[in-house]
Amino acid sequence: MSRVGRNPIELPKGVEVRLAGRAVTAKGKMGEHSVMIDSSVEAALADGKITLRPRVDDKETRVRWGTAHSLVRGLVKGVNEGFTVNLEIVGVGYRAAVEGETLALQLGFSHDLRYPIPQGIKIRCERPTMISVTGVDKQKVGQVAAEIRALRRPEPYKGKGIRYKGEYVLQKEGKKK
User: Fold this and answer.
1) The whole model's pTM is what?
2) d(CA 71, CA 94)
3) Domains in the chain, ordered, with CATH?
């Protein structure tokens, strides 16, 4: 039995959930989002809780049961609180700014980089060296943050580049004389 899947998912106040076959749709203060769960797992809504049960008890279904539980839990948390990934830019002259629907980045290249902001994602720059990626879908927020980080990964000698907030970059020793 899946230990994760066995626990019911509590619905916070202000979150509405609809079940339609394999689709689980949630609506909350951050927006609306839906996720498709595996056909071997069935979902039920009762008393402000979502419970997931496997249709058949075998190893593959138990794996999918836990995955479906995590997806639905992330869906409920996303529409209620949202997900945020913070990035910080390290380097002299490196900065970012939101211009309309694009993120303008100056990362030491001969030209500015422009990253189009995807639908359903909000990007804010509190400071020129801080980027905050927010959205309802955990996977999409993480993917956008990873794509922005990939534009200029932190290099190991001076530590310059875009990194996740709190990420430790192991710095190598430079050339010796």
Assistant:
1) 0.85
2) 36
3) 3-80 (3.90.930.12), 83-164 (3.90.930.12)
